[in-house]
Every structure is written in structure tokens, then in C-alpha cells.
Amino acid sequence: MTTPTLVPHSITDAQYTTDSFGENAGVKAVFDGQETWIPMDNENRMYREILKQVADGELTIAEAE
Fold it and tell me: How confident is the model at residue 9 (pLDDT cuts 50, 70, 90)?
């Protein structure tokens, strides 16, 4: 199985969200101009793009409030 090529997206205002136990469970971010909640799932293309931008130094994810 091949992994699809990621297309760069505009991602801003990234912040972790937590589950009922206070553990990071997802990321809330403005993704291509729309506020979006993205699960921390490596199968999710949006989450993979967030991780790529973090690794490239283009994005920082704020801690959950």
C-alpha cells in the first residue's frame, strides 16, 4: 500500500485538545481557513500534515488549556 503525497496546507492556531482523562487526544487548528478538530491518528492525513509542519519548524502546537 502506498501513502498518498501530502499537499501543503495552511495550518495556524494549532492547540492540543484533551480527553476526559486530561490526556492529549487531538489538535484544534485553523486548517485552510476553517477551524477543525483533528484526532491524533497517524492514519489521518490532516494529522500527518500537522506533524510534517511541526518537524519542518513551520508550526508549533500549543498546550491544551
Answer: confident
Cell of 33: 481557513
Calpha distance 21→37 (Å, rounded): 18
Strand 11-18 vs strand 24-31: parallel, antiparallel, or unpaired? antiparallel
Domain ranges within the chain, ordered by starting residue? 1-65
**CB-CB contact of 18 with 25 (8 Å):** yes
Q: Vertex 46, ends 39 and 59: CA angle to 5°?
A: 100
C-alpha 47/C-alpha 41 separation (Å) is: 7
Instruction: Identify the residue with better confidence: 9 or 19.
Output: 19
